[in-house]
Description:
The chain is mainly α. The protein contains 34 helices and three strands. The chain has a three-stranded mixed β-sheet, with no helix packed on it.
Amino acid sequence: LTPAERARVSMTAPPPSRRSVTPTASSEAEQGDRLAAEGDDEGALGLYRRALGLVGPSPGEGVDPSALRASLHVRIGEAKLRQGRTREAVAAFEKALGPAPTQHEVDRVLKLLLSMYMGERDHRSAASVQARLLDRVSSTEERVVALLSFARSWLHDASEPLRARALLEEARALAPREPEVLRALLELAERDRRADDIVELRKLLAELEEDPVRRAAALLELGRELVSVLRREDDALDVLEAALEAHPSELEPLVLLAQVLADRQEWSELEGAYHRMLDRLPRVEPAEVHRSVEAEIARRLGNLLRDHLEDQAGALSAFERAVSAEPGDLETRRAAAELARSLGEHRRALGHAQFVAERAPREPKDVRRLFDLLMKCELVERACHVAEVLVVLERADERQRALLEAHRDDVRRPVEELPPDAWERMWLEEQLPVARMFEAAGEALYAGLVELWRRQGGAESVGELLRRPLPRVHVDESSTVAFRALRTQAPTTLIGGPALRGRSLEELSFLAGYHLATELPAHRPVFLRRGLDELSACFLAMVREVMPEAPAPEALAAQVAIVGAALEAKLDDEARHALDVAFIELDERGGQIDLGAWAEAAERSALAAGLLLSGDLRVACALLELLPVGLPRERRLELLLGVALSEAYGDLRLRMSGAPG
């Protein structure tokens, strides 16, 4: 045909109608699916029934007739279910299971049947369907999931806790550590108030928690309930031990465990618990937490051994372990001093009593304990210094006054210069790393501070006013201050009238010694600072010299940069090495820094130098008001008394007196 003829035919021949095509089961089913999708369930049912009548006895259209019949029954059941004709839907679904449906159709039908039976509360039929579904599951994991799902349905939809529990126990037998199964069992146990099961399941669930902090918290919560609500102390002890094992740095479980054992007076068991905790310490991090936990447990162990187990030697060792972890714990040191003294170990007691008295110099009981121990150890020279402190405190008794009177002629003025290790001895031990950092960088720090003052307008212009070069020490009788360091290009001190007129040799010696200490490169930034910001800038600049990537607060960044530039320009290799060593020492001690405490340590060293040169504590106390603006008088007095009580002061005083040995 030509193109024109073909066009003519296509225009005149009628299109084939549906009725002209021989219907098949598949085509009728497809038409039914379209009607169902459009919401015409009744029309769809007619087509599905027609399709059933067209299914032949043998395979055709590429489809197994049995599978096709099953699929059509499923479609009929779904349509009737949408119409609310539940019983007819169930009948259709049951028919679908007869003619060898596909695996997919079986699963689909069984789930639909299960949903309907549960809705109609036909529990017998629902259980039968569930059993058929479970028989079709091959893997353990899938079976556990199915059992859990069915159990929840029985519990929440059908209020059948016994059926739910049976399914959950079966799931637990297959997967004993599956959290979801255990949580569902716990829900049932709490509903039925089965206390034993509740405790067991909560402990299991807590132990399955991967995060040790959350695991310990869950066990602690259970332990609290066992103690306060359920009154099951034996179970509580096991649970609390598990909490401590999970997270040894969390001490709350230990507190509760100790309370239970103390109430039961099971002291040996409590001792064992403390020792187990000490054995777990290697797992505790970081270092500062490790020390804190060790100190707390050792203190508790010491109290237990002393107060309940009558093991004084063991208690002393425990207390000393505590103060080794936290040296500043004065109460534990007091306890250690008393125990050592009662055991006749006076030298051992003296170390603790010395530490306490230096840091609590206004506590007469602590000072008297130190005096008694020094006398027992035949350290009479040092005992005299302690007696002087008691006189200043107006708490001296006849024995202390008699000792001072007897040794009045033994007091020697210094005839030797300060020994090379004097400043190290006068710094408190805990401040040594910081002191060594400032000592290493002292001269460079001063140059940085001078530049900082210049840029911020903080330098003093005394030299310009006098119109002559400013000397290292400038005397100005009109000044109302005894002396003060000036913020000038070169280290300079102004000496005023109160230090020039009517002063005894002892008074001048004290002021000179104090001034000498303020001139030390390590101390100079402390005595010239205005607030802690400048001191912080110095410290951060030193840290950055060792660790360039160390951050600095935005508010201090400019100051740190100025001081840091001076360090970079002026530090030599020897100073850099000393700075590195001191920083490493600080880091090994935990890296904690309290610049306020360092400022007090520098003040204490200056007071110590003045007292060493003067040799008279009462004179030194009387001159505190003349010192440059800084700490309040009462705090200075405490520091000064601490110096007088210290072993370092007694030793240096003896060495500078020229006494043999």
